[in-house]
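Re: Re: ligand-bound prediction request (bumping)

Still looking for help on this. To restate: I need the protein modeled with flavin-adenine dinucleotide bound, output as structure tokens. Inputs repeated here so nobody has to scroll up.
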Amino acid sequence: MTSIAPHQKAKGLKPGQTKPAKQLCSECGLCDTHYIHYVKDACAFLNQQIAELEKKAHDRSRNLDKEDEWYFGVHQDMMAARKKKPIPGAQWTGIVSTIACKMLEKGIIEGVVCVQNTKEDRFQPMPVIATTPEEVLAAKVNKPTLSPNLSVLEQIERSQMKRLLVIGVGCQIQALRAVEQKLGLEKLYVLGTPCVDNVTRAGLQKFLDNTSRSPDTVVHYEFMQDFRIHFKHEDGSIEKVPFFGLKTNVLKDVFAPSCMSCFDYVNSLADLVVGYMGAPFGWQWLVVRNNTGQVMLDLIADELDTQPVFSKGNRKEAVQQSIPAYDKGVTLPMWAARLMGVVIDRIGPKGLEYARFSIDSHYTRNYLYTKRNYPHKLASHVPEYAQKIINQYQLPGS
Ligand code: FAD
Ligand code: SF4
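Reply:
Sorry for the wait, this slipped through. Here it is.
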């Protein structure tokens, strides 16, 4: 007789039911399944346990004597890369989709957890387990909204797949790592992206309506290293809006509370992370955390141009000055915002220093948000590496 695991007796929540993390829930999908049984331990917002999970995933937690590891986590290699032949319509050059397709084609994995969109709405996420390269390619490009990627966990269990790739952002991957041993897999591969300032679908609409000249035709957008948001429209045109001109007074509540209290921007628990913010404009930024990540990257090495990462400029003053502006929701007039964007782009931080700028700005903002709104959680929720980053700055009220 086959025995039933304890979680298999539990039942996932129905849509609309309040999740255990309440307002802090990032809709990672775990609680839509019977893995809700493990939520107290697994949820990134109920139990911050990045250092412990790093030991399991990478055989060690990050070295707090090395500043680079406070920022970028456990890693054995870092580089800038781009596909020699980019995938049209991918978020950047399509490194994520290419690795997933190659792993399927070579039979290394049987399925890929990734996010397609619904037929009706290009930005409404629809997590799937892709089993063909075509299904993986149908998931290319960011759905810049909270996505319940882990809602497919029961499907994985039923499918009896043994070798799986999961693509996801930090909060999804933390919960996944916490239940990894219960999934019955022989090998799990994790391909992560950095993530920050995510929103609900309704929040995304508010953001687009208040920021873009043509919200309905936006197909893709990114907060770029030139301190502007680049919106790509259906007709291929690019609209650039300076960060400093955002209507922060209107938009201050648009980001999900989970993202306002997140300290895992760089996806600490993935085997390989693919982002852009530590690389020159047009290139992607790769962080190889362990040997599994290296194996994944090696599969597509001949399809990539690469260059070493570099760091230029000094972010500290710009971060310190941005803290009260963020805090008060100050909006600059558009002409001043454009001018400031141009000046900062010329003299501002580049490469890894830009990545540090973005991490510092978000962790200090999120620390203040958590302190104000969830003071009882502050001590356990802020990881030691994030506290070291925050301690470099003077915060209001401290
Ligand atoms: P593609 O080949 O286009 O593949 C994109 C993959 O992303 C797909 O496989 C899809 O399954 C997955 N995906 C799409 N939407 C979601 C979602 N909502 N949740 C989980 N997975 C999803 N990089 C930075 O350096 N700095 C950032 O601040 C940053 N913020 C991000 C915010 C979000 C919400 C997301 C999803 C990604 C973010 N990234 C960030 C990563 C970056 O934008 C690219 O996704 C990454 O560089 C991969 O590009 P690509 O062309 O290789 O991806
Ligand atoms: Fe559940 Fe995920 Fe929400 Fe936490 S973030 S309550 S694990 S759905």
